[in-house]
Amino acid sequence: MDEILKKLPTVSSDDAVKMFIDRIAEVNPRVQTGLIRAAFLFAWDAHKDQFRKSGEPFLAHPIATAFILAEQRLDAITIAAGLLHDVIEDTETTKEEIESLFGEEVALLVDGVTKIRTFQMKNRRERQAETYRKMLLSMAKDLRVIIIKFADRIHNLRTLSFLQPKRIQAIAEETLDIYAPLAHRLGMEKIKLDLEDLAFKHLHPQEYQSIEERVAKSHFGRETKIEKFAKPLLQKLVEDKIPAVIAGRPKHFYSIHRKMIQRSKSFEEIYDLLAIRIIVDSVRDCYQVLGLIHSMWTPLQDRFKDYISTPKSNGYQSLHTTVFGEDGAVMEMQIRTWKMNEVAEDGVAAHWLHKSSEEVRNFSKDDKTLAWLRNLIEWQKDLTDSTEFYEFFKIDLFHAEIFVFTPKGDLIPLPNGATVLDFAFTVHTQLGLHCTGAKIDGKIEPINASLKNGQTVEVLHSSTKNPSIEWLKYAKTPKVRGAIRRWLKTAEKQESTALGRKIVDTSYKKLHADASFNEHAPELLKFLGLSNVERLYELVGSGELPVTRVMQYFHVRKIKTNVSENFVSKIVDTITGRSHGILVGGDSDNLMVRFASCCNPLPGDEIIGFVTKGRGISVHRTNCPTVESFSEDADRTIEVCWDEGEEKKYTVSLEITCTDRPGLLMKISEVFTDCDANIIDASIKVLNQKAKSSFQIEIKDQNQLKQILRRIQKIKGIENVSRVKDYISYPGVDSAQ
Ligand code: MN
User: Fold this and answer.
1) What distance in Å separates the CA atoms of residue 291 and residue 279, rounded to the nearest whole number?
2) Residue 677 CB partners (closer than 8 Å, separation 6+)
3) Which of 7, 70, 6 is nearest to 39 (CA)?
4) Which residue numbers are catalytic?
5) 53 C-alpha to center of ligand 1: Å?
6) Is the pLDDT of residue 499 over 90?
């Protein structure tokens, strides 16, 4: 091919197309050449006056790209699209023109490749993220788009040297970050190795050269070692009449480099790990050869892998076994059929080898590679943020999958690092939403426990358990995080609605109107421009609509109030000591009520509520400095009062300093018992004859606390007793604001 490219500036288009078609027929004899010929001549005309930075005709690029595709034995449509892949971007040709000349499929492929181009956006990260998203979506339409993109990238990497060093580095890095892992994911090992070695050469030229030299030097020794295994094995295969071919593995500089760094080993240690490949006709032969090998050499038990019965998620199938030879030499053997070998080298591209393009577009449902792709596309729907998508995409490409089992023995594939929660949701959303933990190989573990390959996981669940915001941290797959987020949103909406209903109710009662709220509802909704009452409640409860605006309607209309009832109510209120306000006291009705951590109100304190945006009501003491800042936002304040009917316990921490006198602690705890407070936790530190003790106690209100403090202060030997504000925690509510 290089020869044709060299001759390009001097030959006529007719000669060039003839040479090209001849070469294509050599590497890909089954392909129809009519379409390719037409595409070649069209590209020739379109690009004829363009030159690359290197000075060679631009045409060399699409021709080389198309040839790489031909070598992959792709179909005529893909090869034609490879020839035309830059005409929309770099010439005046339109998609419609291509469609009318070469058909819809070619046009879609060329358009797809064009669209993957990088666009100028805010920053590099986002630009990349967007590129990947586009790649993914174009793959979903037709995988051949990405295959053309791979070929395009390979040729660009081969001819990078004329660009700015910065640009070279960026392209090489992107190749290692995204293109190579993606090729790996699609099972295209040959392409992946090419991409990696080319990028490696540009990124670390010295290391590349050093490895290249050492590989060349140790070539002979390596071949001899391989011979020691291959020769007797081949002999045995012939004896047993098993037709097979034995091949060494292709040298791959980048993986040697990576392993040297990752495992901090010397070149020799890495390079001495020998491997050969035995390719046979049938699956039966694979296992027969395996038995043969194990009868000739001792296998390393834990290195045996059967990827035939459990293929990798990119479709890779093979038997792997590692054996000991004489002198302790170790050899890895990979046994596979010819078909498996094609898939191992060409991945999804292998689909084009034995199928018409019509069949190719309708992949079978159980194809593993495409299951992964479908998952990826499914997952990206849940990712709105493009950088999150980038992270996810990168993670998913790099991390191998693990396989875990349900108690029934079903295999569940998950990304590396997946947790019990990921597993539960993957089995069934309902199971995930109520998950409390799991039995992993019989042992009970929490929801955030990570799973390992081969474990059996039985999900534990309870109908009363529901997701919380922390779950987003525990789940590793975007799909699961999406499900949790959706649930939280719905729950928040329900809570806001309930809270809003209560706020509106309370405010309305204060009006003592002579008609029920519902009678006014239709008019009121019109006034506020809302469609239904639920929405009104939700807006009020989430702090988006101040209740005073709702009540304005009644004030403006001077809604008649029932004075006598108003009068009576006031008397009743005075008698019962209860004003209209939101009752707070605990988590009994699940309202979003939180106690502000700036002033930590306790029952008995005078309090006021503040409707925060989306976080319910935050309750402060009325004398809290924060409350002053509310005056600007008076619309949001709301009357709240303690629910005295409810016996709730609050945890309070006390710090007591006293002389280290025997019996003193006894006296302190007697006070707690006398005053009916439970001790939850206690710790004592003794220093310089002084004891500093901390107690966590459960009390029901301010008065009880005051009584306790008074009585402790009276004990002889007590120097100081104080309430540690920061450690107060309330049952069932988080502190906020
Ligand atoms: Mn290109």
Assistant:
1) 15
2) 697, 698, 699, 704, 708
3) 70
4) 89-90
5) 13
6) no
Strand order in the sheet with 457-461: 443-445, 435-440, 457-461
Chain centre to alpha carbon of residue 211: 36
What integer is the mean pLDDT of 172-184?
83
Tell me if 69 sits within 8 A of 111, measured CB to CB: no
Name the pLDDT band for 588 (thresholds 50, 70, 90): very low
Helix (H) or strand (E) holding 608: strand 607-611
Roughly how many angstroms between the first and final C-alpha of the chain, as a whole number?
A: 70
pTM given for the model? 0.55
Distance of CA 2 to the CA centre of its chain: 43
Average pLDDT over residues 168-191: 84
Residue 412 and residue 455: Cα distance in Å, rounded?
A: 10
Give the DSSP letter of residue 615: S
DSSP string, 420-466: HHHHHHHH-HHHHHTEEEEEETTEEE-TTPBP-TT-BEEEEE-TT--
Q: Which two tokens stand for residue 496?
A: 């806001």
Read off the amino acid at residue 354: H
The token pair at 40 is: 């070649």
Q: In terms of Cα–Cα distance, which of 117, 139, 138, 137 is closest to 128? A: 117
Say whether 119 sits in a helix, a strand or coil: coil
**Residue 131 alpha carbon to ligand 1 centre in Å:** 15
- Give distance in angstroms: CA of 153 to centre of ligand 1: 7
* Cα angle for residues 32, 360, 318 (degrees, 5° grid): 110
- What's the CA gap between 243 and 337, in Å, rounded? 11
Residues near 651 by beta carbon (within 8 Å), at least 6 away in sequence = 680, 696, 697, 698, 727, 728, 729, 730, 731
User: How close is the Cα of 88 to the center of ligand 1, in Å?
Assistant: 11
